[in-house]
Automatic annotation (TrEMBL):
Domain of life: Bacteria
Record carries keyword Transferase: no
Originating organism: Virgibacillus pantothenticus
Annotated protein name in UniProt: Conjugal transfer protein
Gene3D superfamilies: 3.10.450.540
Membrane-spanning residues: 39-60
Entry keyword set: Membrane, Transmembrane, Transmembrane helix
Keyword Membrane among record annotations: yes
Annotated InterPro entries: TcpC, TcpC_C
Any Pfam family: TpcC
Amino acid sequence: MSIKDKLKKNKVVDKIEQIERPKKEKSPVRKDTSKRTAFFIWSLILGMLFLATISVLLSLNTRSTLNETNKLVQANEDKEVIEEIPVESANEFLSNFIKEYINVSNESEALQERANRLKEYMVFNDTFNDEKNSLYNLDNVNGTRQLESLNLFHIEDEGERSLFQYKVTFKNELQREVEKEVVKGEGKNKKKEIEIEIETEEEKNTLLLNIPIVYEKGLFSVQSVPYFTEVPSLAGNIEYEKKEVDLEEYTGNEKENINEFLNTFFEKYATEPVDEMAYLMDDPQTLNGSFLFEEIRNLKIYVDGKHYKATMEVVFRDELTNIQQVNPVEMTISKTGRNYYVKNFIYN
């Protein structure tokens, strides 16, 4: 190949190299994201449902709690209303009412005055404003009824009203005209005559008088007609075991001295004034001559740390009637030098 031909070939090659080849473009492959989108949407829906459910439950719980709170508040308010009733004032009001209610005369004028006074104590309504109410009108009264004593027994909360119970003792009297044969004159002049005498029949009763009352702005009214019931017994069969002294019993040389001190102590306790007992005990007390000291029974002395504990039965006696009074006593006794002193004194 000639030089000329080589030069031509080189020029052609240079031109070919100068021609830029088009770059290959990568065709994008689309990924499937539908599952991810669906998962996100369902998660959002379920999350919203969950939050809505929680919100409803919390709302119900809050409402329930609020209702309970309101009930408690209302109950407390009602309780406070009952507690605000001044018992002393109620007792004063009812003591006067009971006298008017229990005391009954057999005279028409006195019965009318009683009816007028009772009206002032009753609630204001059609029932007790009616003068024909049986509370005011007592028919065919033969005898009289007289109150002898009254004592507040119990108070019962009945919601809108309070029930005051009083133990009352009253006497019923009925006077009758009785014909009696009497002998008058002497000797041949004796003769029998019929005279009219008045005999009085008496009957005493002790019952529980139940009086329902209402209270408003410092004032009271009897809400309904009082009624009688039997007085219940308050005595209970309650089991109670006295605690045993869990201490070592003392048998030392001081026992006789303690016994002597106790006898001297109770002689003074029975007769001396309180000021004198201040030298012998922490909390001075005394019978101040009401009883005479007689003796100590069943004395036991124990070691209680630095002190002595003594349990015993102390016998007192009334000087006039000779009636005996026996009391179990527990004492804590300390010793300073040669002197004994009562730190604690309990009727046990």
